[in-house]
Write a structure and sequence with these properties.
Distance between the termini: 40 Å
Number of strands: 4
Order of helices and strands: HHHHEEEEHHHHHHHHHH
Strand order of the largest sheet: 1-2
Radius of gyration: 22 Å
Strand content: under 5%
Structural class: mainly alpha
Shape: globular
């Protein structure tokens, strides 16, 4: 164990926060799994807990392996992985199948393992790496709109268009983060305004096309989006069943909560172990538990901003913000849905919700952040060694 700890580099506070979130996740996931066993009619609560443990263990392996990779390698890796991501997204979109009557057009099945993989989450991380690379390479160059359309926005737009039919919320998070990243990276505001306008027009055309020709996008969940937004704007008791149960769970938790495993609403919330797990946490651990969880995510954001600020390269700074900010966006959106501030989106709570893809891709992103942080530590240690008076004296004598 001591040897492993010595090999762990990067921001220790980020390591600690991620570990705390992962360890805490066992309590609500185990509690909510009682409902999962009933709904799926397969396995046991201990079986679902063991699966969650294995996913987290593999997630930390991903963090460890990723943070050992020098972060500059992610620049070239993003270019190589963009075509792979496009192929995976096309395959995911084309299959357009259902699993147990539920739209599964966002997932592909990993052969021999039997685990579903949501390709859009991988695409989100890769596209952030690519955008950070482009902005870093053009930091001292005059950016023209025509060239940036081909080199930057064509790959970004293609990925977003392929994600959009089946997953609007993920598309929105990626697009918002890309806009933020390009703004911070010095992309001309006048061009950025045009890109936002084009994005709005493309989305509007997609909505109109999907409505006019429903068979055109077989994997589209357009009707689901529209109904969720309409139900949010004009509450309907039957249609807002999940949202209402989540509010009841949060309200019944009060200040201190009912205690671990004592949630009542987990028996009525279909997505109690994933999309609405924050409501179960608030019911069982009360306002204290919910607020503590919020503090942890804010702490994670704070540490990532510090890592980005201390990084000496523009690529490192943009890379940390690009892969790190979506984790916080996702967490806040999940919480906002549970308390009724947002329409239902299907976004899990990072490192807490059950589900392999979310855990693995969050861990991959955290590993990239730690890689940047570890590189900064290495540079500082090298600088301190170079400035060591004894070393300077030894070199002068020798």
């Amino acid at each position: 164990m001591t040897k492993i700890l010595k090999n762990i580099k990067g921001d220790r506070t980020i390591w600690a926060i991620v570990a705390l979130l992962a360890i805490f996740s066992f309590l609500p996931v185990y509690s909510a799994s009682t409902n999962l066993v009933y709904v799926v009619e397969n396995g046991t609560t201990s079986g679902h807990l063991l699966k969650h443990a294995m996913l987290l263990i593999l997630g930390f392996v991903i963090i460890y392996a990723t943070h050992k990779i020098p972060y500059r390698y992610f620049s070239g890796l993003s270019v190589l992985l963009i075509p792979v991501v496009v192929v995976l997204l096309v395959y995911t979109l084309m299959q357009g199948k259902t699993i147990s009557g539920v739209n599964a057009s966002r997932w592909i099945r990993i052969p021999f393992v039997g685990i579903g993989f949501q390709t859009s989450t991988l695409a989100g991380v890769i596209i952030m790496m690519y955008v950070a690379r482009y902005l870093a390479k053009h930091k001292d160059k005059a950016i023209t709109f025509k060239k940036s359309l081909l080199q930057l926005w064509l790959p970004v737009g293609l990925v977003l268009i392929l994600i959009l039919p089946a997953n609007f919320s993920t598309t929105a998070i990626i697009f918002a983060t890309v806009v933020m990243l390009t703004f911070l990276g010095g992309y001309p505001i006048k061009y950025l305004a045009s890109i936002i306008g084009i994005g709005v027009i493309v989305f509007a055309l997609f909505l109109l096309t999907a409505k006019a020709f429903p068979d055109t996008f077989k994997g589209s969940r357009i009707n689901t989006w529209v109904s969720r937004i309409e139900n949010f704007a004009q509450p309907n008791e039957e249609a807002n069943y999940q949202a209402d149960k989540a509010k009841i769970a949060i309200a019944s938790g009060e200040i201190q909560g009912k205690g671990p495993g004592k949630s009542v609403q987990k028996n009525f919330l279909p997505q109690s172990s994933s999309d609405f797990i924050f409501a179960i946490i608030a019911e069982e651990f009360g306002l204290i538990g919910a607020f503590s969880l919020l503090i942890l995510y804010l702490g994670l954001l704070f540490r990532m901003v510090i890592v980005a600020n201390k990084t000496e390269t523009i690529f490192g700074t943009l890379l940390v913000l690009g892969v790190g900010i979506p984790i916080i966006f996702q967490a806040f959106i999940n919480m906002a849905v549970a308390v009724g501030l947002f329409p239902v989106t299907g976004q899990p709570l990072p490192l807490i919700s059950a589900g392999g893809t979310s855990i693995w891709m969050t861990c991959f992103a955290v590993g990239i952040v730690l890689s940047v942080s570890a590189n900064r530590e290495m540079e500082m240690n090298k600088k301190n060694e170079d400035d060591n008076p004894l070393k300077i004296l030894h070199e002068a004598i020798g």
